[in-house]
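_Per-residue structure_
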Amino acid sequence: MRTLLNLLWLVLSGLWLALGYAVAGLVCFLLVVTIPWGVACFRIAGYALWPFGRSVVERPGAGVASGVGNVVWLVFAGLWLTLGHLAAGVGFCLTVIGIPFGLAHFKMVPVSLMPLGREIVRSDAASPSYRWAPAPGAPR
């Protein structure tokens, strides 16, 4: 079911979203100073291509620089991207068939609002203990 939803998402929203985020990432890389935001754009582009079965979690130890970078992102891009995802989510949720896609847009809001200091992981690895669990095979 996850694969079917991802394929439908790719046709209805994902390809266009991913292209938009990738172009924004390229622009950020051209401006050199904004490379951290470019990396975040490419990460979001991958998430926009295939969102079902993946989740966004906070990266431990991201630091103050991520917080400051997120404030800059919020002012220049985050607010507008979030409003776009909210509008698309509401539009998709107006139809019964579009509800999963609307929920996928809502799921993208946190990473589009503040992308630095976040990680995109498989949904089954996004449990609350994900960040604090020791590596497999590591002594406890």
Q: What stands out?
A: Residues 2-125 form one domain. The beta strands are 54-58, 118-122.
